[in-house]
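B., you asked whether I could sanity-check this one before it goes into the benchmark set. Here's the sequence:
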Amino acid sequence: MRAFFVAALLAAGSLGSAAAWADTVEVANVKYETALDLAGQKLQLNGVGIRYKFVIKVYTAGLYLSSKAGTTAEVLAAHGPKRIHIQMLREVDGNELGKLFTKGMEANAPREEFVKSINGVLKLSEVFASRKALVAGDNFSVDFVPGVGSTLQLNGKPLLSEPIKEPEFFSALLRIWLGDKPADESLKEALLGLKKARR
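And here's what the prediction gave me:
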């Protein structure tokens, strides 16, 4: 009888571990929740991946939406709040990162969308330029809430005094990773849930 109870407890423990594991996805030793609440709505992890520069892992990225989307057009058209979450895997100069993001938005967004995003682009560049560097372990999120705008958090702390109101900004930002000239083609596919992230 005692052996039965021990076996039952072990089985329960392994089920608990499996359930806990199912609530997160791990990539490059970074855990992403499979679901989260934003502005009172439930979002699910659409995809997660790693940004490589040559063979060097630079950061991980996770995209959260209210419903699954498998194409860039579906992501941009998706209703409700959205989040892109980045976690650094190595040190990157803050000013350089801001410039790369700006170039990525300009290269991928339609001209009219980019022009309407200028206010947000400048604010984002200022935020990164004000930091000497982002180091391994630093993370930032950009949240978009319809009717409110985009907010930026670094290591969980808000960085803007008020949201970036232009909805075009968030769309242009997402195009860095999901546009026709993405920062990393493999990461694009991972964020769209088309393939598992490279480890």
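One thing to flag: The chain is about 40% helix and 30% strand. Otherwise nothing jumped out at me.
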